[in-house]
C-alpha cells in the first residue's frame, strides 16, 4: 500500500508555475528601479550567502541524475576549491554550510528511501574543506553548522578557534540543536532531548563558550619573553570554573585568541524557545518560509525580544532561504526550470519534508491538507513544521502533492525563475515586505546556479545600488556584516559580559526544587536561604561570591560534634529585601548569627551570617571527618606552597573546605 502511494507521488507532475514567480520583463538589464539613493538615503545593501551542504543534492534532490550537476563529487576537494573561487569572484558574503547528524527516517518509517534517493545522504564533515577554500580566497566567509547536542563545548571551542585563526577571522557558526532520533541513536542515546530543554542546554553551552573564547585569555597573554624562556604569561590566561546544570568544566581555553575570538553567530529556529535563544545569542538568523507574509511576523517578534534583552534590534541580520533560477531572459530561465524538473525526485522531497516536520507523508492521501496535528514530533520541529503548514497567497493549501512538487526543487523556501531583473525584483520585495537583510541562496544544479548568480544576478543588484560594488579585502566575517573595526562581539551582545577585562564567574547551579543540596550537612536552612537570596542581588553579577567561606568543626563539652558554615549574603540592599528576610530567619535559627568583622564596611556586602548545626556523631565518625579535614588541609597547604614558588602558575584549587571567588 505504501509502495502504491510512492508510485503515485513519483508520477505526479503538478505545475510549478503557481509558486514560482516570473514575469515577461524581457532582456536582462532592463531597468526596474532607480540606482540613485531614495530621499537622499543610501539604499539598504542586500547580503548574499551561498547555501550548500556536504551531501548530494542538498535542497533539490534528484539532480545527481542531471549530466550538468556535480553535487555527487563533493568528496573531491576540487569541488570546494572551484566553488570558493566562483563565490569570491561574485563578492558573495559567505558560504553557508548546512549539516546533519542522522538520516531522515520518518517517511515510511525507514531510512531506505533517504539512502536510495540520496536525500541528503551520504553526508561528509563540512569543516574539513574550509582551510583549502580559505587558501584560494581573501574575502569569502564561511558559516558552518554544528550542533550543541553531541559534543562538549571545549571541543567545539577548540575547533572553531583553530578555523578562525586559519581563515584570518572569516568563520561563522550556525548554532543548531539536534532532534532527530536517528542522530541520537547513532551516538548511543535512545531518546532525543525535549524541544525547550534543548534550548536551555544550548543557552548554557553558549555561556561556556563565551567564557572560553572571550574570558580565558588576555589580549597580551603571549609575551614572547626569550630571555626568561616565557612564551605565554600564565597569569594572563584565566581558568574557567563552570558548574552548571548541563556542563561542568575547570580549564583554560587551549587556543589563544583568534581574530574574532567568538565566531560570527548564525542561528536557525523561530519557535518560542528558538526565538528567545536567538534574541540573546544570534547575530544572524536563518529563517524559512515560502511567502514574506509567513516570515515577517517571526522576524518582528525576534527583533522585539532582542530589544527587551537590551540589544539593538537592527543589529540582528535575517537571512531567508531563496533559490534563484536565472536566465538572460525570462524565457531562458523557464527553459532551465523545465530541464531540471526532468530530474527532480518527488520522493526525495517527501523524504526531506517528512523528516523536517515529523509527518510521515507516505500515510496521507495526496490531496489531504497537512496540519500540525499530523506531526508525531510537533514539539521537536516547530520551525520547519510551521513553514509547511502555514498557508499564504503563494501556497493556499499544503498537501502531500504540493509538498512533493515544492520540496523537489528549492526545498525550504521560495524559488524565483526569470531574468536578472525579475529575480532582483523578487529579492527587493522580500526585503521590503519581510524585513530580511539577506538571503541564503540555494542551488538547483552545481555548477550552474551559483555561476548564474555571480554572472547575471549580482551585476543587476549592483546596478540598482543594493549590492556592494567591490568587496573590502581583509575583513573578518563579523566586519563584513557590521563594518570594519567590529571584529569582536558588539558591546550589547550577551557574550560581551564574559570578556576578559569584565569577566565574572557564574554562580554554581542550584536545583530549584532541592534547596537542601546547598548545605554540606544538616538541614541547611540558613545556607539555602542566604544563597538563593543572593541570586537576586542586583548589585553584583557574581551573587554567590563565597558560598562556603569557612567550614570548621569542634567538639563540645558534652561530646557533641559541631559543624559551622559562614555564608555570604547581600543584606541591606534596596531591592534585595529577600536577603534581609533570609538573614533574620537565619538569626532565629542560630542566635549567634552575625556580620563577619573581617570584611570592610561595604553596605552591599554587609551580611555575612552563620548557620550553626550541632549533630551527634560517634567517635568513628569524628575520626573519619577529622582525617578528611587534615588530609585536605595538608593538600591545600602544599598546593599553596607550590603556587607561590611558581609565581601563580597553578590553577586555583577547589575543594569542599574553601571555594574562592
Describe this entry's structure for a reader:
This protein is α/β, with parallel strands linked by helices. The protein has two domains: 2-212 and 252-481, Luciferase-like domain (TIM Barrel, Alpha-Beta Barrel), CATH 3.20.20.30; 516-617, no CATH class. The chain has helices at 2-11, 77-89, 112-116, 130-135, 153-166, 181-186, 195-215, 272-281, 292-308, 330-341, 346-357, 382-387, 400-408, 420-434, 449-463, 477-482, 525-534, 577-589, 619-645, and strands spanning 47-53, 94-98, 141-147, 171-176, 222-225, 230-232, 240-243, 248-251, 264-268, 284-287, 317-326, 415-418, 438-441, 550-555, 561-568, 608-615. The chain has an eight-stranded parallel barrel with strand order 1-2-3-4-9-10-11-13, surrounded by six helices. A three-stranded antiparallel beta sheet has the order 14-15-16. α9 (292-308) packs across α14 (420-434), α14 crosses α15 (449-463) and α17 runs antiparallel to α18. The N and C termini lie far apart (66 Å). Mean pLDDT is 79; it is low at 1-38, 513-557, 559-573, 586-617 and 646-661.
Give descriptors for this structure.
661 residues; alpha/beta; TIM Barrel; 2 domains; three-stranded antiparallel beta sheet; 19 helices; globular; disordered N terminus
What is the helix tally?
19
* Rg calculated over all Cα atoms: 29 Å
Low-confidence stretches: 1-38, 513-557, 559-573, 586-617, 646-661
- Estimate the helix proportion, in percent: 25-40%
- Which architecture name of the largest domain does CATH use? Alpha-Beta Barrel
CATH superfamily of the largest domain: Luciferase-like domain
Shape: globular
Amino acid at each position: 500500500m505504501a509502495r502504491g502511494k510512492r508510485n503515485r507521488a513519483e508520477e505526479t507532475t503538478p505545475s510549478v508555475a503557481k509558486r514560482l514567480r516570473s514575469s515577461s520583463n524581457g532582456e536582462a538589464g532592463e531597468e526596474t528601479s532607480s540606482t540613485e539613493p531614495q530621499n537622499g538615503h543610501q539604499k539598504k545593501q542586500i547580503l548574499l550567502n551561498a547555501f550548500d551542504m556536504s551531501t548530494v543534492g542538498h535542497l533539490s534532490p534528484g539532480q545527481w541524475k542531471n549530466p550538468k550537476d556535480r553535487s555527487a563529487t563533493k568528496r573531491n576537494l576540487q569541488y570546494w576549491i572551484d566553488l570558493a573561487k566562483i563565490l569570491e569572484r561574485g563578492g558573495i558574503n559567505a558560504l553557508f554550510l548546512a549539516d546533519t547528524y542522522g538520516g531522515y527516517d520518518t517517511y515510511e518509517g525507514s531510512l531506505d528511501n533517504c539512502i536510495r534517493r540520496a536525500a541528503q545522504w551520504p553526508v561528509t564533515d563540512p569543516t574539513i574543506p574550509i582551510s583549502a577554500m580559505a587558501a584560494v580566497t581573501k574575502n569569502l566567509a564561511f558559516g558552518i553548522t554544528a550542533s550543541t547536542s553531541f559534543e562538549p563545548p571545549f571541543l567545539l571551542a577548540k575547533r572553531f578557534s583553530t578555523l578562525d585563526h586559519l581563515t584570518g577571522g572569516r568563520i561563522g557558526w550556525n548554532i543548531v540543536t539536534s532532534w532527530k532520533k536517528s542522530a541520537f541513536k547513532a551516538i548511543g542515546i535512545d531518546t532525543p532531548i525535549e524541544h525547550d530543554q534543548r534550548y536551555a542546554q544550548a543557552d548554557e553551552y553558549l555561556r561556556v563558550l563565551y567564557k572560553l573564547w572571550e574570558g580565558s585569555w588576555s589580549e597580551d597573554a603571549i609575551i614572547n619573553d626569550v630571555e626568561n624562556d616565557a612564551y605565554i604569561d600564565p597569569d594572563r590566561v584565566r581558568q574557567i570554573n563552570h558548574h552548571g546544570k548541563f556542563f561542568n568544566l575547570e580549564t583554560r581555553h587551549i587556543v589563544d585568541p583568534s581574530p574574532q575570538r567568538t565566531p560570527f553567530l548564525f542561528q536557525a529556529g523561530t519557535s518560542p524557545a528558538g526565538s528567545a535563544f536567538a534574541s540573546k545569542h544570534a547575530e544572524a538568523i536563518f529563517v524559512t518560509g515560502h511567502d514574506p507574509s509567513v516570515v515577517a511576523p517571526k522576524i518582528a517578534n525576534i527583533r522585539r525580544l532582542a530589544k527587551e534583552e537590551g540589544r539593538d534590534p537592527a543589529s540582528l541580520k535575517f537571512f531567508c532561504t531563496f533559490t534563484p533560477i536565472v536566465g538572460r531572459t525570462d524565457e531562458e530561465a523557464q527553459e532551465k526550470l523545465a530541464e531540471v524538473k526532468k530530474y527532480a525526485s518527488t520522493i526525495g522531497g517527501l523524504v526531506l519534508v517528512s523528516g523536517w516536520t515529523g509527518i510521515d507523508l507516505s500515510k496521507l492521501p495526496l490531496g489531504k491538507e497537512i496540519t500540525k496535528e499530523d506531526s508525531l514530533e510537533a514539539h521537536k520541529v516547530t520551525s520547519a513544521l510551521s513553514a509547511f503548514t502555514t498557508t499564504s497567497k503563494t501556497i493556499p493549501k499544503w498537501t502531500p502533492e504540493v509538498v512533493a512538487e515544492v520540496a523537489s526543487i528549492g526545498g525550504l523556501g521560495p524559488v524565483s525563475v526569470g531574468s536578472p531583473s525579475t529575480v532582483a525584483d523578487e529579492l527587493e520585495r522580500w526585503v521590503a515586505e519581510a524585513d530580511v537583510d539577506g538571503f541564503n541562496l540555494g542551488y538547483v544544479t552545481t555548477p550552474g546556479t551559483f555561476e548564474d548568480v555571480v554572472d547575471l544576478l549580482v551585476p543587476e543588484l549592483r546596478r540598482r545600488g543594493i549590492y556592494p560594488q567591490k568587496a573590502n579585502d581583509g575583513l573578518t566575517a563579523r566586519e563584513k556584516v557590521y563594518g570594519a573595526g567590529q571584529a569582536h562581539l558588539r558591546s550589547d551582545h550577551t557574550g560581551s559580559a564574559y570578556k576578559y577585562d569584565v569577566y565574572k564567574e557564574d554562580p554554581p547551579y542550584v536545583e530549584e526544587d532541592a534547596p537542601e543540596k546547598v548545605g554540606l550537612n544538616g538541614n541547611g536552612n540558613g545556607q539555602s536561604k542566604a544563597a538563593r537570596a543572593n541570586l537576586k542581588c542586583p548589585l553584583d553579577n557574581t551573587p554567590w561570591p563565597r558560598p562556603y567561606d569557612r567550614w570548621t568543626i569542634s567538639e563540645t563539652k558534652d561530646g557533641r560534634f559541631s559543624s559551622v558554615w559562614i555564608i555570604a549574603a547581600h543584606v541591606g540592599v534596596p531591592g534585595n529585601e529577600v536577603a534581609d528576610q533570609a538573614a533574620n530567619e537565619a538569626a532565629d535559627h542560630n542566635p549567634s548569627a552575625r556580620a563577619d568583622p573581617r570584611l570592610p564596611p561595604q553596605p552591599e556586602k554587609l551580611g555575612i551570617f552563620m548557620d550553626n548545626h550541632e549533630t551527634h556523631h560517634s567517635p568513628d565518625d569524628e575520626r573519619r571527618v577529622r582525617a578528611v579535614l587534615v588530609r585536605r588541609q595538608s593538600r591545600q597547604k602544599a598546593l599553596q606552597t607550590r603556587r607561590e614558588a611558581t609565581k601563580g602558575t597553578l590553577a586555583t584549587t577547589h575543594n569542599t573546605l574553601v571555594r574562592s571567588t
